Amino acid sequence: MDRAALAGVRIADFAWAWAGAHAGTLLAFLGAEVIKIESLIRPDFSRTRSLTTGQKFEGLDQSAVFNDINLGKLSVRINLGHPRGLELAKAIVQISDVVTQNWRPGAMELFGLGYKDLSEVKPDIIYLSSSAQGMTGPEGRSLGLAPDFAAIGGLSYITGYADGPPTELAGEIDLLSAYTSAFAILAALNYRQQSGYGQHIDTSSSEAISVLIGEVLMDYTMNGRVQCRQGNRDEFMAPHNCYRCRGEDKWVSIAVGSDEEWRAFTNAIGNPEWTEDPSFSDAHSRWRNQQQLDKLVEDWTLARSHYEVMEILQQAGVAAVPSFNSQELYSDPHLKERRFWQEIEHPIIGRQTVAGPPWKLSATPARVYRHGPLLGEHNEYVFGELLGLPSDEIVRLVEEKIIY
What we know:
Blueprint: E1 10-13, H1 19-29, E2 33-38, H2 64-69, E3 74-77, H3 83-94, E4 98-101, H4 107-110, H5 115-121, E5 126-131, H6 146-153, H7 171-195, E6 199-204, H8 205-210, H9 214-223, E7 240-244, E8 251-255, H10 259-268, H11 283-288, H12 290-301, H13 306-315, E9 319-322, H14 326-331, H15 333-337, E10 341-346, E11 350-355, H16 379-386, H17 391-399
Parallel strand pairs: 1-2, 1-4, 2-3, 4-5, 5-6
Antiparallel strand pairs: 7-8, 8-9, 10-11
């Protein structure tokens, strides 16, 4: 059987919600043992409600949202407000390689669980702090959620139509921050393997978004120009837009990037007379006249389904893809072929279809190992098998609400 890339790596996961928590899940896909440290005193809010859908869940183990964000993890309950609870948390850290947390900046330090504290427990620990704007600087104590990260990071400002307001971006922004954190942890593990040293990774979720718009920031830095919203249009390419197709709320994105692609496009759509118009004779002319061009392109797309447009243009070598709704994504043959969607059995909410690992690896395949954990599901394994506590002591700690 192939060995997982992170087999033997253990993560003490204090993170909650989305941005911090999903970083651990990405590493669990690679085979890391991720132990989520939580409590009945302050359960992860994604166990009780969904900010994106407005759902509320009756029990702490019934949230499909929590399950999706925390696939493959283990869970223990620890009352961190009790000195013995802190001892248990530090004992888990002592046998771990990585600590992840996205508490309010400074909060972990108040509990004695900051990087300096835990590096004394485990000198080579890799410690990830994920926050809105990092832990240092004048905004180092800032709090925030995904819409804040997108706004401060600059992505919201340039997303939207030219005559409309900035777009509020939500859950996907948290997940982008999580990918940044997971990548940083992988780099730190590689560094530790070579040097023997751990480190403190201070992730700013806002900056994790800013790196995605480097050309916009450089345009301001080099040219003093502030870019703004322009819908789906491009600064050079035309046609470049999202066009209506046959059916209710069906759309397709088309991008033509060169004269060669323009010829391929016109051939694919049957070389209608308007394609010979001098207004569209070269890239600059097409760009200057893109409002007129967009209407003519949409006259063609409106007579076809978004799938038909995709197939016709892709076969001609022109970039085109539908705007898929959820059902279309679920049934998409490309995603099915790559086994993007996977099914798991959850002991409370039953069979679930989940998004699997976003990468395909040959020698060390990534996969969904198990469902998201029930609250405290692995108390016996972690406290008994890993930490070596006798069964009667575990029972006593539960009765005293230390394991709680």
